[in-house]
Structure formats: structure tokens, C-alpha cells
Design goal:
- Helices cover about 45% and strands about 15% of the residues.
- It is α/β, with parallel strands linked by helices and about 450 residues long.
- It has a seven-stranded parallel beta sheet with strand order 3-2-1-4-5-8-9. It has a six-stranded parallel beta sheet with strand order 12-11-10-13-14-15, with helices on both faces. It has a two-stranded antiparallel sheet with strand order 6-7.
Length: about 450
């Protein structure tokens, strides 16, 4: 019998590639061949982090690429489909390389349409929360109810809550309204509208979440199947596009248990000079050890610099790195709190380790995720901006103390960790669904 062969197609950004890489590892460990599609630039970034022959990733997952220049929302909508279709035709045309299934990021539903056209089975994967997917699937209802117009623009400011036990989201913070300029917003909304129709093609719409985390969302949309959170046992954070500073782990080993504030804002967040300075002073005044992922290359040249004498004053109490092995950090016994942008991957990693969060959402679905952390699960607090839109140092110091001294909050974080562990355990619903999905792929 021929080995099942899955082509995996992520939306071409790091936060989408990582969970699909994790899922790909599960597939190859279960005897399924995987071809993973990246843009050329992202392909090179990943391969450079994993020297040939030294890791399961490169030895068992076939990494392929399509041309660069596809990372913009417009290109993902209008250019990338043709490139992926050409790649499928090239690979599928070989007798020994037949693709039995296309596993596509739900954010690019057109890949499912291509698979259907080629007579190839397909499945969709949502790397975000089920709540975000349900909200996307509700776009037409939001238009019909007069909440937004046909271009996705809110007709008035209001708060949306699809279920009493789901997080609220303001119409100002709908995912497509916080992803860049007006043109980008337009293309993201068009892509989401197109995805709604694409979802009907496949019987498998799997999601990197669990019933324990989002029972209401899964009740509203039974078609969405939870298989997460997906945490492989791979020693690397696979799918990362940046080299990780492993030396910070030794620094963590030297800190007291439950003492370190970990700060990381993903790969897109940028700060104004004022905000950067306020964060520096807030961490300095906290008088607690901290590990901070600072992406100077993501800031305007020479704009964000540490306050004068900052590095000397914090000494060995603070550690700044360019990129970090986040999975290892959040599972480390010295970490007490996570100041986060609330990306879904980071949120799952924090929840999966029982780490309380201070939420600093920046764009896209991060505002909805903040609602889960602060309002539904109650395992974190939001850092609030002042009237000028800046989170001040006083707020940072105050919220750090509140979170670290709130025993009830920390207790809920530990309880949620155990629930997540059950969902992905041997008898858990997510584990059962994942195994069922793998069985389906093998029997196509």
C-alpha cells in the first residue's frame, strides 16, 4: 500500500507556520509523508536553523518553496494561488509523489478549492482560536444585522459577544480592522469572505484548540473539530524564522523559582519611542528579574533605545535577547508571569504551562484572545492604556504586583493547565480527534 502523502500549505507568516509544523511532526511520526510549502525566504530561514541530518524536521518533512513576494495580503489572495497550483501539478504529476491530501491553513481557503479541482482530498486547519473562526463564519450575519457594511467597516461602535461564555470584542477590534493600512484591511476581509465558502468543501475543519478552553465556540459551530493545543516533544520550536538565543536558559537556571517576568510580543509588534521607554522604566521599577525579547530590527532605526544607564542599573537582574526558545522558557520553573501580545500560539503555550499573563494585544485576533485570558478564563489581567494610548510605567509596575500576588488567579491558571493536559492526553477529546484525523488520511 502506498504511503499517504500530505501537502501542507500555511499562510506565509511565522505564527501560522509554527502550529502547522507541529502538526506535520505528528503526521510523519504516524507514517505519513509530508511536503511543507513555504515562500522562498521563509523556506531558507527555516532550513538555516536546522542543519541537514541533525533533526527529525528535515529528515522526514520535505520542505519545498514557491517564489517570494507573496507575504502581503493582496499577494496571498491574488498571486499565491497560482504558484501553489503549479507546485501541486508538478508534484502530483509524478507517479511516486502522488499527493493524497492537501492540508491548508484555513486562512487560505482557496487552497482547498485547488485540491478539489485536482481531485485531491483536502482538510482545513485553523491556527487561531475557535472563537475567531466562528466570528469569521459569522461575517454575513454581521452584515445582515447592520453591524458592518459589505466591506467590513463597522456601521457603529458596539461590543459583539456571540455567546455568554465567549469573549467580547469591540467592532473597533475586529480582526480585519487591525492588520495594517486600509488596503491591507480590504484584502484580509476579502480573503475571509472567500474562506467562508471554501469551508464547505472539506469534512475536516480542525482547530488548534480544545473543548476545555472553548466549549461555547465549539457548540456554536460543531463542524470545527478541536485537536489541540498541539505541543510536540521536538527539542526545537520548529517553524521559527529566527535563530533563538539559547543562552538565556542558563540565566533562567540561576533565578529563583516563580520569580521571573517573561516579556515577548511576537514577530509583528512595534512600539513608539515613548512606549518603549515606559516599558523599560516599568520593568526597572518592578525590582523583579525579567527576560525580555527585544526586536530592535522591528523598530524604526535609532528610534527605540534603552534609557540612559538602563542596562547598567538593571545589571544581571534583567536579560534582553533578540529571539527566544519560548516553549522552553514558559515551561521553566523560574518563570512567574508572561507579558504577552496574546497571539494564539503564545496564549496556548502560557496556558499549557499554567503561567499567568499580562495582556498587551497589538493587532488581529489578539484582542479576542485577551478576552479569553482576562474575562473568560480569568488567568490574567490587561495592561491598560492612558488617554494618549500609552501603557505607562506605573500601570506596568502595578499590574505585575497584582498578578503575582493574586493567589486565586494563579490557582485558576494551574487548574486550566490541568484541563489542557487532559484534552491532549491519551483519553482526551483532542487526542481522539487527532488520531481520527490521522486514520482518515491513511485511508483516503
Amino acid at each position: 500500500m502506498e504511503k499517504a502523502h500530505v501537502m501542507v500549505v500555511p499562510y506565509p507568516v511565522q505564527g501560522h507556520a509554527i502550529p502547522l509544523m507541529e502538526l506535520s511532526l505528528y503526521l510523519v511520526k504516524n507514517g505519513i509523508k509530508v511536503t511543507f510549502v513555504n515562500t522562498k525566504q521563509n523556506h531558507d530561514r527555516i532550513k538555516n536553523l536546522f542543519p541537514c541530518g541533525n533533526d527529525l524536521l528535515l529528515s522526514e518533512i520535505n520542505l519545498v518553496w514557491i517564489s517570494d513576494g507573496l507575504e502581503s495580503a493582496e499577494s496571498v489572495l491574488n498571486v499565491m494561488p497560482k504558484k501553489v497550483e503549479e507546485l501541486i501539478e508538478c508534484i502530483h504529476g509524478s507517479e511516486n509523489e502522488k499527493i493524497t491530501c492537501v492540508l491548508a491553513d484555513q486562512s487560505i481557503g482557496w487552497a482547498l478549492e485547488i485540491a478539489e479541482k485536482k481531485g485531491i482530498a483536502c482538510a482545513a486547519f485553523c491556527p487561531a482560536s475557535a472563537a475567531q473562526l466562528v466570528l469569521g463564519l459569522s461575517i454575513q450575519k454581521l452584515i445582515d444585522d447592520g453591524v458592518i457594511d459589505k466591506d467590513g467597516t463597522p456601521l457603529e461602535k458596539q461590543v459583539i459577544q456571540l455567546s455568554p461564555t465567549m469573549p467580547c470584542v469591540s467592532t473597533e477590534n475586529l480582526v480585519w480592522l487591525n492588520v495594517g493600512n486600509k488596503t491591507t484591511q480590504k484584502h484580509i476581509f476579502q480573503l475571509m469572505m472567500k474562506n467562508i465558502n471554501s469551508m464547505h468543501i472539506t469534512k475536516w475543519l480542525i482547530c488548534n484548540s480544545s473543548h476545555e478552553l472553548e466549549p461555547a465556540a465549539f457548540s456554536l459551530a460543531p463542524k470545527i473539530i478541536p485537536i489541540g493545543p498541539i505541543f510536540s516533544n521536538n527539542q526545537y520550536s520548529i517553524g521559527n524564522f529566527r535563530p533563538q538565543d539559547q543562552t538565556c536558559l542558563k540565566w533562567l537556571d540561576e533565578q529563583s523559582p516563580n520569580s521571573v517576568i517573561y516579556i515577548a510580543f511576537g514577530s509583528f509588534t512595534t512600539f513608539s519611542s515613548i512606549q518603549f521607554q515606559e516599558l523599560c522604566f516599568g520593568l526597572e521599577r518592578s525590582n523583579r528579574p525579567f527576560l525580555w525579547v527585544v526586536q530592535m530590527d522591528k523598530t524604526e532605526p535609532k528610534k527605540n533605545v534603552y534609557p540612559k544607564g538602563f542596562e547598567e542599573r538593571i545589571g544581571k537582574r534583567g536579560r534582553m535577547v533578540g529571539w527566544s526558545p519560548q516553549k522552553k522558557i514558559l515551561s521553566h520553573s523560574s518563570v512567574a508571569c508572561f507579558i504577552s501580545h496574546c497571539g494564539w500560539n503564545s496564549t496556548l503555550e502560557s496556558v499549557g504551562n499554567g503561567i499567568p499573563m499580562l495582556c498587551w494585544p497589538y493587532f488581529a485576533d489578539q484582542f479576542l484572545n485577551r478576552g479569553y485570558v482576562c474575562d473568560v478564563w480569568k488567568v490574567g489581567m490587561e495592561l491598560e492604556k492612558d488617554e494618549s494610548g500609552v501603557i505607562r510605567q506605573d500601570e506596568i509596575v502595578r499590574k505585575i504586583e497584582q498578578v503575582l500576588n493574586d493567589e486565586d488567579l494563579k490557582g485558576r491558571a494551574k487548574e486550566l493547565k490541568e484541563k489542557v493536559k487532559i484534552s491532549i492526553g491519551e483519553d482526551g477529546v483532542s487526542n481522539y480527534n487527532l488520531l481520527s484525523f490521522i486514520k482518515w488520511i491513511k485511508n483516503i
